[in-house]
Amino acid sequence: MKTFLLVLTLLICGAHTAIAQFEMGTINPNKIKATFSSSGRLFWDEFSSARFIVPYDPNTNSNKSAISLGTLWFMAIDSNTGDTLMAVQMYGQEGSDFLPGPLPPNASIGFTPPDVHLAQFTRFQVEDGKLDSNKLANGVLKWPASYTYQGNQFPLAPFQDNNKNGIYEPKLGEIPSYNGEDYIYFVYHDMVNHPVSKTAPIGLQIQTEAFGFSRLYSSIDAVLFLKYKVISTSRNLKEFRMGVYTDFDLGNYSDDMIGTDTSRNMVYVYNGDQDDEGILGYGLNPPAMGIVFLNQPLCQSCFHMNQPRWKDSTHAFRPPFHPKEFKNLLEAKNTAGDSMTVLTPGSMYGKKSRYAFTGDPSTSTGWTMDSDTFSGNDYRSLAITGAPSLNKSDTFELFLMYVYDRTTPNGGRLASIDSIRAKVDFLRARGFIQQKPQIPADCFAPRITKDTTGQGTGIFPSYQMETSTVYPNPADKSLTVQLSHENSNFTCKIMNELGQVILKDSGTGELKIDCSNLPQGIYYVHLEATQLGQRSVHKLVVLH
């Protein structure tokens, strides 16, 4: 059920050499077998093999993997100094801006992290331990509820404190606060010299939980959850960006394609042709795999190709190497620093986008890799969220869902995209996913800028005006926008997913808008009531 591996790595931190211990654990709920490292590198065994095996069957030697690597990237501006700070990592050959362990307040670069281990257990082990304390699993017994640093004790992982004394006492029946039926917890930080981003440390502590269920519903399997809790321990930050970096290797890594489903807060991978060839491949009717942001908006997404730098003569999509290239990607540009541009023939040609490939491959509509100049290859995705600020001691939480599906024996590569969407919709409809309304916003510096071009600012506020109503939704031929303050003047802009203004009008109290000429799709109704000092955005679906 689980595997632990203790490894010693040498990390060069300036003029000092630090010995960093990291642990690895594997959980296998729900037809997924996934490996995690307390270094922050996920789904990789730290040596040579991908470790997100799906579908996993313990009775066979199934070894098809859908992801080779998952890490977090960060970027923010120090509010006091104005310095741009980053923390990133990939496979580790280039070094890492992170180390395992918690980050005590006011710790300095090169400090010795407290001895906090990766914790792993199943729900059944927890229940057995509650019945008989002699059967406590190691992960439950050594749950890192707190740690000691320089003689002081600091709280860490939450637990059920039955007697309210602040002390974790598993022998008295207290248990970790955890989720799911197969569970891993670990913590890491960036208070080291940064060999990759070449910036000063941000001072982030990242607590990570990974879990799954043996079965969500009778018709749902191959779903995994991750929860991140990021704490700024020493700085006041602004324009905080958090990127989920994923090397989607869907079986045979050389023929993948990627996309973004903004209506579901999801980035995904699918196969570039109908046969995922080779010993690593899934074969005919290949699957699709998605990552869904459950509690934060998917603000931006971008990608790069994994190929030798000298093969990319334009430098546009080559792997990042210099700090400036990591910064470009964290700003949702290509590696060279250019905005992503649609090259699909038609009305969208030449438009800029803050998301990579927002069209629908299964219906051949919009901007997709299939319709653009890209073919199946080895791509890596960066899905970005964030906040305008993250001050000292503030916490930013991100909840992710990984979802896999395959339409076999028939259906083909594009039908698998529809299958993962159906899974997401199924779970949301039954309340399993409590997802916040999605607003593709300038999440990092919310403000309204004047639109002088008529092409849209591409900036949306990240807050909602409680006094506005938009109906019907979905809309067909007409739309009504209504304010509860019937004498208030307001302006209304309808924007597409690229941030372009499609319709613009104004009214007092109520406004009726003709939608009959709008193509089917997702739009955003941007309202501003100047007299009330309020603004809002409503997501709108148009169906004819």
Give your account of this protein's structure.
The chain is built from 4 helices and 31 strands. The protein is 7% helix and 37% strand. It has 544 residues and is mainly β. Strands 1, 2, 3, 4, 5, 6, 14, 20 and 23 form a 9-stranded antiparallel beta sheet that branches. A hairpin with a 6-residue loop joins strand 17 (275-276) and strand 18 (283-284). It has helices spanning 123-131, 138-141, 323-330, 413-429, and strands at 5-13, 16-27, 33-37, 52-53, 65-78, 84-87, 99-100, 119-122, 146-149, 152-155, 182-189, 204-212, 223-232, 237-248, 256-261, 266-271, 275-276, 283-284, 288-293, 300-305, 340-341, 352-353, 379-390, 395-405, 468-471, 478-483, 489-495, 501-508, 510-514, 521-529, 534-542. The longest helix is centred in the C-terminal third of the chain and has 17 residues, at 413-429. Residues 1-19 and 446-466 have low confidence and may be disordered.
Helix-strand layout with pairing:
Blueprint: E1 5-13, E2 16-27, E3 33-37, E4 52-53, E5 65-78, E6 84-87, E7 99-100, E8 119-122, H1 123-131, H2 138-141, E9 146-149, E10 152-155, E11 182-189, E12 204-212, E13 223-232, E14 237-248, E15 256-261, E16 266-271, E17 275-276, E18 283-284, E19 288-293, E20 300-305, H3 323-330, E21 340-341, E22 352-353, E23 379-390, E24 395-405, H4 413-429, E25 468-471, E26 478-483, E27 489-495, E28 501-508, E29 510-514, E30 521-529, E31 534-542
Antiparallel strand pairs: 1-2, 2-3, 3-4, 4-5, 5-6, 5-14, 7-11, 8-11, 9-10, 11-12, 12-13, 13-24, 14-23, 15-16, 16-19, 17-18, 19-24, 20-23, 21-22, 25-26, 26-29, 27-28, 27-30, 30-31
